[in-house]
Amino acid sequence: MENASKALIMAGSVLLALIIISALVFMFNSLRGLKTEELNSDEAKKLAEFNQKIELYNRDLYGSELISLANLIEDYNSREANAYTGGYKQITFKVDMKEISVEMDGYMDKTYTNYEKLVNDYENNIENLLSNLKKTEKILNINIKSGKDWYGMTQEQKNIYLANLQTTKNLSDIQIDTIRKTMEDKADDYSNVVTASNTFKNRKFEPISFEYDEYTGRVTKIEFRVRPA
Question: Looking at the structure, do residues 67 and 177 belong to the same domain, yes or no?
């Protein structure tokens, strides 16, 4: 009788232990499932937010907007799509500028497959060049971008201006010749870079490809070209 009682107690203890273990396993699986749902929900939210941000540019863009898109892609590729950290696929970016290659000759390339080079060329060959040209006109007190000033002067007007400058500043003929050449060169440079700048900023670029990763649903490829005039 005593042995039977002990057996019942042991069996009850084992059963209770199994019930407790089963309950713990159930709770663990439930918590894990809940956590997975939360992660999936967060991932879906991030995906929607990211694609929405990128898809705002899935339309005709002006050049300045194209630069903004290139900067956005650069930030994403360096922060979230780093292959070394197991991130998402990087976004590839291509821009066809052959339609305006004549106006952009010497300032920007006909085709870009690198968003960093697109931004760098625009900043260095157009924005910074314009800034430097404006410094020259400020130093010489001549407005090379205005049609009523140096660039729009007749040869006689330029001669009169330089003669007065020579007298006022007590400059030598060599100095005056240097100023004349400088202003002629800068005026030509200014005209050309302004043409390139206005062309890039005012022409529209049309999207020809917005591709998505089949597994993550994220944008992975973007292509634009200049819309024909």
Answer: yes
Helix, strand, or coil here: 112?
Answer: strand
The count of structural domains within the chain is 2
Residue whose structure tokens are 């660039």: 151
Angle (nearest 5°) at CA 109 between 105 and 113: 170
Contact 190, 151 (CB under 8 A): yes
Apex 227 CA angle, 223 and 229, nearest 5: 165
Same domain assignment for residues 21 and 45: yes
Q: What is the pLDDT of residues 5-41, one digit of tens each?
A: 555 556 556 555 556 666 555 565 555 554 445 445 5
Q: Among the residues of the chain, which ranges form H helices?
A: 2-55, 63-79, 101-104, 115-122, 128-140, 155-169, 173-202
pTM score over 0.85: no
Q: Which residues form the domain of 187? A: 61-226
DSSP designation for 205: E
Instruction: Report residue 157 as tokens.
Output: 């007007």
User: What residues have CB less than 8 Å from 133, skipping those under 6 apart?
Assistant: 144, 145, 186, 189, 190, 193
Note the pLDDT tens digit of each residue in 197-225. Answer: 999 999 999 999 999 988 888 889 999 99
